[in-house]
Amino acid sequence: MSCHRYSRMSSSGERGSPWGHCGRMPWRPYEIAAVILGFFIFWPLGVAILFWKLWQRSQGYEGDLFAFAQEQGARVKEAVSGVARESAAGWGGPSFMRSTGNVAFDEWREGELARLEEERRKLAEAERDFAEHIEQLRRARDREEFESFMRGRKNGESKGA
To answer: How far is the C-alpha of 61 from the C-alpha of 73, rounded, in Å?
Structure first.
């Protein structure tokens, strides 16, 4: 029997589904699980996986969901590395690090950036010192509260005994 989309009989004469497989990939258990999880997690994801599987069947794509994801990941990686290679020659870093062509300005900018970095370092050090000071105050307050509690407890025991 010929392979027809709506055929009720497979080529071996067995009764098949109306959707038949006729050269198409069957659903794998993890693809079914992916669709179900997709609908469970975020319904558009489930719809996307379902449409992908239907597209795969209509186009005769032989790979599975994971092979497709790997192929697309490789394409994206290749595209990104191609863009990086093309722009690497003409890109001198962020705009504040590129040379303007004016040596005096570039020297002044480097000096200002170094000064700002020194200020940032001083601020970080002051912040660290302040945090240590606050921690010492907390410890002193905790110690005072604990000693007050112990004195009160001791005085309460001597009165009650």
So the answer is: 17
DSSP 37-99: HHHHH-HHHHHHHHHHHHHHHHHT--S-HHHHHHHHHHHHHHHHHHHHHHHHTT--SSTTTS-
The Cα–Cα gap between 48 and 45 comes to: 5
Residues 2-39: pLDDT tens digits? Answer: 444 444 444 444 444 444 555 555 677 777 887 788 78
Report the Cα 39 to chain-centroid distance in Å: 21
Asked if 64 contacts 25 with a C-beta cutoff of 8 angstroms, the reply is yes
Q: pTM for the full model?
A: 0.35
Q: Are 32 and 50 in contact (CB under 8 A)?
A: no
Domain ranges of the chain: 102-161
pLDDT digits 0-9 by tens, 53-65? 777 776 666 666 6
